[in-house]
Design goal:
Elements lengths: L10 H21 L6 E5 L2 E5 L1 H23 L7 H9 L7 H33 L11 H14 L7 H20 L6 H25 L2 H11 L8 H28 L3 H6 L4 H23 L5 H13 L4 H24 L8 H19 L5
Length: 375
C-alpha cells in the first residue's frame, strides 16, 4: 500500500478565505469611493495623491499584517498569538524563540518580500509592452535565472554566487527575447510567443541538468526548482530586502515614463522621452527583481502574471501609487500561498510554487479566453 497525502486541513484555508473575503469587501467599497485623487500641500511642496489607491493600500497592509500573524501562530507547534508577537518583536530568548524567530518569522518576511519583488517585476514588463500575458515567468526570464542558478548549485559553487548567477541568467534571457522580438518595435503578441519558445528551451536545459548530475545533488536542486520557502532564513530576507531597497526606487521612477511610453513611440518621443533608454532600464530593473527572488526561493510562477492585472483592474494604469499597491498585493498572494502550502496537507508541506500555479493557472486561462481574438 502506498502512502498518500493526509486529509486536507481546512483551518488555515478558512482563515485565508476570510482574509480574501474581507479584502473583496474593501475593494467593492473602494469602487464606490467618490474622490479619486487630490493634492497635498506643505509650504512650497505639493504632492498629487490618489486617495483611492492610498486607502486601498492601507487595507491591503492590514491584510498582510493579519496573514503574517497567522504565519507566526499556526503550525505543528502552535504558539499563542500574544506570545508569538512578543517573541518576534521584543521578548527574545523565551520559550518560543526558536520556533518563531528561526523558523516562522523569517519565512513570513521572505514571503512578503519575494511576493512584492515578483509583483513589481510583472507590472513593469506588462506596462512595457501593454500586454497582460507578459511576465518574467511566462516569457522565460525566471527560467533563465533558474538555469544559471541551478548550474551553480549542481557544480558545487558557493551559495553567495546564486544572486549573481540568477541576475546574469535573467538579463541574458531578457536580452535574447527582446532581440528576437524586435521588428521596428516590440509587439506584445510577438514577445509572448518568442518568450514561450525561449522558456521551453531553457526548461529543457534545466531538465538536462537534472538528469546529468548524481541523484544526491539533484534532490535539493529539484526541490528548489519547484519554488519553496521551506529553507527561508534571515540571510535570505536580507538579500531580498537589499534587492527591494535598491531596485524599487528606480521602478517607482520608471512608472511615469512607462505611462508616457504607452501613448506610442511617436508621441512619447515628441514629449522628450528617450525610448530605448527607458526600455533598457525597464528590462534591467524588472529582470533584476525577478532574479533576486529566483536566487532565494526558486522560480515561483504566476505571482508576476496575476497580481499586476488585479492591481490594474482595481486602480487603473500604472503610477507610483499603483506600483506600491501591486507590491502589497504580491505580498498577500505569496504569503497566502505559503500558508496554504504549509497547512493544507499538514504535516506534509507542499512547495509554495505548486499553490501559486494552482491559483494562477485558471487566471491565465481566463485571460486567454478574454483576449482570444487578439491571438
Amino acid at each position: 500500500m502506498t502512502a498518500g497525502l493526509p486529509a486536507p486541513s481546512l483551518g488555515v484555508l478558512g482563515i485565508v478565505a476570510a482574509a480574501f473575503a474581507a479584502l473583496v469587501l474593501v475593494l467593492r467599497r473602494n469602487r464606490s469611493a467618490g474622490v479619486a485623487a487630490g493634492t497635498l500641500r506643505w509650504g512650497a511642496l505639493s504632492v498629487r495623491v490618489q486617495w483611492r489607491v492610498l486607502w486601498l493600500s492601507g487595507a491591503v497592509v492590514a491584510v498582510v499584517l493579519g496573514l503574517a500573524i497567522v504565519g507566526l501562530v499556526v503550525g505543528d507547534y502552535p504558539v499563542p498569538a500574544g506570545q508569538a508577537l512578543a517573541t518576534a518583536l521584543w521578548d527574545r530568548g523565551g520559550e518560543f524563540e526558536f520556533v518563531v524567530n528561526s523558523l516562522r518569522f523569517p519565512r513570513v518576511v521572505v514571503a512578503v518580500l519575494a511576493g512584492a519583488c515578483l509583483a513589481v517585476s510583472g507590472a513593469l514588463f506588462q506596462s512595457l509592452v501593454d500586454n497582460p500575458l507578459v511576465s518574467p515567468d511566462i516569457i522565460g526570464i525566471n527560467t533563465g535565472a533558474a538555469a544559471c542558478a541551478m548550474t551553480i548549485l549542481l557544480v558545487g559553487g558557493h551559495p553567495g554566487l546564486l544572486p549573481v548567477a540568477a541576475f546574469a541568467g535573467a538579463l541574458a534571457a531578457a536580452a535574447v527575447i527582446f532581440l528576437l522580438s524586435w521588428r521596428r518595435g516590440v509587439s506584445g503578441a510577438r514577445l509572448v510567443l518568442v518568450g514561450i519558445g525561449v522558456n521551453a528551451l531553457l526548461a529543457s536545459v534545466i531538465s538536462f541538468l537534472l538528469v546529468r548530475f548524481p541523484i544526491d545533488q539533484v534532490g535539493a536542486a529539484a526541490a528548489w526548482q519547484a519554488g519553496t520557502l521551506a529553507a527561508a532564513s534571515w540571510s535570505n530576507a536580507a538579500v531580498l530586502s537589499a534587492g527591494l531597497v535598491v531596485l524599487f526606487p528606480p521602478a517607482f521612477l520608471l512608472a511615469r515614463q512607462l505611462r508616457v511610453l504607452q501613448l506610442g513611440d511617436e508621441i512619447a518621443g515628441n514629449l522628450g522621452l528617450s525610448l530605448e533608454r527607458c526600455r533598457v532600464l525597464v528590462v534591467v530593473v524588472g529582470s533584476a527583481l525577478a532574479a533576486v527572488v529566483v536566487a532565494v526561493v526558486g522560480p515561483l510562477g504566476f505571482v508576476a502574471l496575476l497580481v499586476p492585472h488585479v492591481a490594474r483592474s482595481l486602480a487603473g494604469t500604472l503610477t507610483g501609487g499603483v506600483l506600491v499597491l501591486t507590491a502589497l498585493l504580491g505580498a498577500v498572494m505569496l504569503l497566502s500561498a505559503d500558508l496554504i502550502a504549509q497547512r493544507l496537507f499538514a504535516p506534509t508541506v507542499l512547495p509554495a510554487g505548486i499553490v501559486t500555479a494552482a491559483m494562477g493557472g485558471p487566471f491565465l486561462l481566463a485571460i486567454l479566453r478574454r483576449y482570444n481574438r487578439a491571438f
